[in-house]
From TrEMBL:
It comes from Companilactobacillus suantsaicola. This is Uncharacterized protein. The chain crosses the membrane at residues 165-185, 191-214. Keywords: Membrane, Transmembrane, Transmembrane helix.
Amino acid sequence: MTILFDKKIMLSEDAPAFFEKYIHYIHTINPQDLFEGKKNKQILKNKFIFKIHQLANLDSANLSIKTTNKNLEIYADFPRQSAVKIGTYPINRYLKRIIAQGAYPTVRIMGGRFKKVVPTDFDKDIIVDGVEPYGIILELHQPEVANEKIRKIDTLYHYVFKSEYSLVSVSKILMCCFAIFGLALGLGFMFLGFFMTGLMVIVAFFGVNSYTLILSENYKPKRIE
């Protein structure tokens, strides 16, 4: 995904309280999302972790963007919690343009409760818990072009094949064509003296497609009028 905007934004007064409610919510649905799912022993064993925060993002929340004459406002909510404005950023022409083009937001969390690896005088590491002021980084992402292409292909597919019955019917016609083509090509090879080649072509094209057609007769798709 392409990141069009990546900036630290001003935290709203209601954001810290919202984050605490969100953490409680994550505890109930997926505690592994907190502290990256690591216990104290796992943190100590991983020599590359010196400090890890409880909350890294708002991936399980719904984010939305609102614009005013002066600011870009970010709202977040989750089940049984109304939307709360968590941050603002001064609006400009660039932001207006990418938002109009469908850019969507994600949020990275800074601060909050954390666990820190601290060495002791006895050459042994311990975990120290602490708290820092919250901060947020807003990312605006370019909408995936592939999704639009897939949507167009899906629309074309449903336009061509109105129902399952029409799809199966077209498939049967194509198999008949391959079977006839294989039979004609195989007989042609035999006529030219290549008996085994012709036989293999007939088996591969005519035999396989004919057998598939026979099996398909046992499948009766529901016809939609």
